[in-house]
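Risk register update: the risk of archive-format incompatibility is retired. Evidence:
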Amino acid sequence: MEAYLGVDVGSMSTKFALLDEDRRLMTKIYLLTQGKPIEMMQQGLKQIKHCLDNGVHIAGVGTTGSARYLAGTLLGADLIKNEITSHAIATLQSYPEVKTIIEIGGQDSKIIIIRDGVVTDFGMNTVCAAGTGSFLDHQALRLNMSITEFSERALSYRSPASIAGRCTVFAESDMIHKQQSGHSIEDILFGLCQALARNYINNVGLGKDIKPPVVFQGGVALNRAMVRAFEEALETEIIVSQNCEIVGAIGAAILAQEHIIQTGQSSSFRGFDVSEGKYKTSSFECKSCPNLCEIIQLHSDGSILARWGGRCDRWDVMRDELTHSLESSPFTKS
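Archived output:
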């Protein structure tokens, strides 16, 4: 049986999704990146291999996420795609009528506007951490509770406290002030969720035509208090995407399958031996023009597997077995 592997490597987490020929999820893996994307990819590959039944063949691999080029080079991906495309294609498969996708991850957030099955607009926030998973985790840790307890206690609110949510520093200061003023933890927590939902709508969603059905995905979608806050702010039901935390990886796997079918090529997946190799990355600044691009290099056994990161293709060189990835547009375009 043929299977298709999607890998989404982000700043906070590394996700794997293995789909069968009918795009049914066979296996999913969610790992914290911990600043070690290569090690986490290798660990995920080992787990995928362990889960595979005899006779299952990896027929295609797709990568996405902020480290998609690194992941694509390391794995020998057939396709490398941005997060917007990956999230949209996976969501449309499960919810073909979707018009708005809210995606909030560990360190960024996105909004995707879809009309008649086509992405017509999108927005991203990669500058401020307010409202992202890392900020919520930090607040839960500061209050000595798990993120699950955070969600449960926030839903027990009576009168939500008014929290400034436009900035992480101000939000935390405001929460401390409300604690000192005698507000209950439950009211403060849900007040924070309300503030973060407003911040998302007024910044990431600024100028966007937000219409239902609205699908919420990303790790933060598992926080039921954030779902409630968005429902109140948008005055509509929020659908929490199935397997919401790995939707990007599912989309990458779907796109890889489409690519393999359309081209008729065999997959260039480098195999599970990649999980045993030793790799490292380095970078340098190209001074060939005023752009001063930062060029990333992937090394193995003293040789360079790949370079990328420039606005032109001056440094985009690959080893022979990865030449197809260099020649395909994902290595030179988003």
